[in-house]
Amino acid sequence: MPELPEVENVKLSLEKIGTVGQVFEKVEFRRANLRTPLKKELTRKLLGQTVRKVERRAKFLLFETDDFVIINHLGMTGSWRPVTRAADFEKHDHVVFHFTSGLKLIYNDPRRFGLLEMIKSTGTSPWLKNLGVEPLAPAFTGEALFAASRKIKAPLKSFIMDQKRVVGVGNIYASEALFRARLKPTRPAAKLTRVEADRLVECIRTILTAAIGAGGSTIRDYRNSEGEEGSFQAHHLVYDRAGKPCVQCGAPVKSKFLAGRNTYWCAKCQR
Ligand SMILES: [Zn+2]
After folding, report:
1. Bridge-partner residues for 162, per DSSP?
2. How close is the Cα of 139 to the center of ligand 1, in Å?
3. Catalytic residue, candidates 11, 59, 81, 157
4. What is the mean pLDDT of residues 31-55?
């Protein structure tokens, strides 16, 4: 499942292939729905609209046109790729943006948990309204995280993965950030000290920035819009390493199901 660094890389590669400035000639639906129905209004209202900006908010991609915003979530397996010939279609190609330049942007999604809808503005969309702070924005501070963690009995890992507080810290990067901050994922959030909150924020920022720089992590089949895999999985220190020696101390990495997700940590290094 793509996390924040992967979605950021999709955004960057969409910019790189020249999506901004393209004018819609046709929107083609090759099936009726993804996670939600694909609405006919997209095929009608987007004609003649110019893509002004491609943005990311949490794990949503936003294509901003003259009058609308197209909101897209990649779900588990969504991806975008550019083609210039109609013959280049593949299985699971569900949506095609045809631009007047001849460029086609294809949305492919084998498991169809993705989302593609049109919204009036980012301020009014129900998809975006309850989202917390961006982890790389200045507002995400140790002070704010510490204040928010008071009286929270939930485990630290669930706390930092709560999208209403901070967005885009998914399962992989939560485990990795907690290992680097030397904090046990199962510890109640309320037990976080002020100093540890600073350290955790620093580690979350560092890991996400490094992962974005490495093109994200390719676990199963993630690719950016230029077909490139991420390489950050080579830098995972605990994620998916259950039973293997901790890179710091050699003790076997532990794993357990926490809030429905596999969680990895070192019982010796993380308190
Ligand atoms: Zn260790």
Report:
1. none
2. 31
3. 59
4. 95
CB 192 within 8 A of CB 211: no
Q: What average pLDDT does range 86-107 have in this prediction?
A: 92
CATH number 3.20.190.10 given to 4-119: yes
256-271: per-residue pLDDT in tens? 999 889 999 999 999 9
Cβ-based neighbours of 65, under 8 Å, separated by 6 or more: 24, 46, 49, 50, 51, 52
Q: Is 52 a catalytic residue?
A: no
* Distance in angstroms (rounded) separating the CA atoms of residues 180 and 235: 12
Fold type of domain 142-265: Helicase, Ruva Protein; domain 3 (1.10.8)
Q: How confident is the model at residue 240 (pLDDT cuts 50, 70, 90)?
A: very high
The yes-or-no verdict on residue 1 having pLDDT over 90 is no
* 3 state SS for 34-71: CCCECCHHHHHHCCCCEEEEEEEECCEEEEEECCCEEE
> What pLDDT does 220 receive?
60
Instruction: State the distance between the two ends of the chain, measured CA to CA, in whole angstroms.
Output: 28
Phi, psi of 207 (to 5 degrees): -70, -40
Spans of all domains in the chain? 4-119, 142-265
Distance CA 263, CA 220 (A): 18
261 is catalytic: yes
d(CA 196, CA 214): 26
Those residues whose beta carbon sits under 5 angstroms from the ion ligand 1 are 246, 248-249, 251, 266, 268-269
202: annotated active-site residue = no
